[in-house]
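Morning!

This is the sequence you dropped in the shared folder:
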Amino acid sequence: MNSILAKDCEIHFNIKAYEVLKTHLAEKNYSKVVVIVDENTHQSCLPLFLSRVESDIVFDIIEIEAGEMSKTIDTCTSVWEALSDLGFDRKSLIINLGGGVVTDLGGFVACTFKRGINYINIPTSLLAMVDASVGGKTGVDLGVIKNQIGVIATGEMVIIDTEFLATLPQNHLRSGLAEMLKHGLIADRKYWDTLSDLSQLHIEDLEQLIYESVIIKNNIVNSDPNEDGVRKYLNFGHTLGHAIESYFLDYDAKEELLHGEAVAIGMILESYLSYKLLDLSKEDLATIKTNIQNLYGKISIDEDDYEHIIELLKFDKKNSHGVINFVLLEAIGKPKYDCQAENALIIEAFEYYKA
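The structure's back. Tokens below.
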């Protein structure tokens, strides 16, 4: 699999990637190297990584708690203090080995420690492989509000090793698939159609689909690195999806949703808005809803929840001058950014989701 040239870094795949990494480590001669893991990747992924690198370098290890609740400034402070205690300097390297929480937080720690040190992302979840690790977005949550603090800064490289996927439970694989479905909906109808019929896919097909998904995201990011325009397309399903994810995270009566599970709901809701406000056909709307709900089922969202979720929309990063902006679909593969919808129509979308 050929490497993909991203902005200021390259994305490498499988065994070839480790040869590139070993050459990079030798050439850079870093003063120290740390691997940031969470408690799950420490046990399930770190041994495989170390066996693949086969280096004489002594890797320091910093472990954080697994899960979205650890994606905070408090966790960053703990990691910054650990780096200081270990004697890290501006010529040191951070390797982020984990899912989106580890790559987002670890990248932010690297970008801010001593005003910036090098980092490398090695995503271990499907979600991180096709989304969080590509594009240079780093950051943490502010309370339960997603990704409010951060910077855009690319790492030295990204290594995607699909063997790590064997460590994932099924619900985490489905969570990552949501971002791949999104890539099809915003960029490539043929890709969407391929992913929509998973009964015809085999596990060996997944590697090529991941590769195509990374290309879709990378092409968009390269054309708009700072999200001034078309990079906003990547937020389809996320305006409502993030609000739903935050709401379910904050309310004890609700069971926490994985990111992809919330985005799956958001894609149905925002497809309904697309049908009402743009030119998305009724047939495509029905297909999107059916295919997504066949994969993810239907999450219980009560009428009493609507107002709380809509209130959280004001924190979305695409908003400007107090206006809530959505990415909607004129057709599958044809998105439009900076769209607005009245609250009454958003409530109508929730009713459609439940129907």
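Headline: The chain is about 50% helix and 15% strand.

More detail when I'm at my desk.
O.
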